Amino acid sequence: MAVTFMQQEVAPQAIAPHAATDLLTVAPLTDADETATLAFLAAQPVHTVVMSSFIRDNGLESPLNRGTFYGCRNARGRLVGVALIGHAMLIETDDEQAFASFARLARECPAAYLIHGERGRVERFWRHYEPWGRRPRRITHELMLEQRPPVAVHEPVRGLRLAESADLEQIVAVNAAMIEAECGINPLTRDAIGFRVRLLRRIEQGRVWVWMRHGKLIFKADVVGDTPAAVYLEGVWVHPQERGRGYGLRCMSQLGRVLLAHTETVCLVVGADSATTQAFYRKAGYKVSAHYDTIYLQT
What top-level class would CATH report for the domain 19-141? Predict the structure, then answer.
């Protein structure tokens, strides 16, 4: 399973404060823009769940976002595009000039590491970014899957719970291994302290679910984005020695019912070429809703 946002480990760096075209103006968004920004993103609640969750959690102006939120406005001052430019670049717009402006800002961002999103938007952004931007190190094709009610009921897992600080080290080890397998970089080598701090914060936010048995981590899932409209999961993991016993299906079914009590859909991305993983999520009631791409940039 993809771990796109679990990888965020580089602090944001300053880039140009604003840009303009003949018809559009692009500038950093401030906390005063929060209501308008969330309303704009709400038009595509699944595709923008991570950006919306960052804003709800941290506000628009926070180092915890690991980048800068930019808004693109037309001549009437109306938002026509929103982007997070930083370690991860996330774009929401249908305006070609906005794509061009966001691509220019991205080219000036030394911290830029990956571009992630719905395939059509990534392709449009990339057409403007590629001629003068950094080369891709790796491109992955993914499927966005969604789970909506009703969720099939399987045998309950009585020990499935929110993670606690005492669980941190086992979660750190698993997440670091997943990230290294996904992108070839071990976050414990680059920034062990920061990686632990960020995971501890996620645990304290109530965003990591675990099943421990006799002190051993059996199942884990990270809630990376959480809004009233959508919850976005990453890092779903079952202990290798416990796979093939139905534990993952039971945990995902139970977790889905818990999360869908306060949101409309639970979503995640999986590799487009991973038939086994796709089959697992189909059993759990997930359906394909979109094609996604992630472009990892050369550093």
Answer: alpha beta
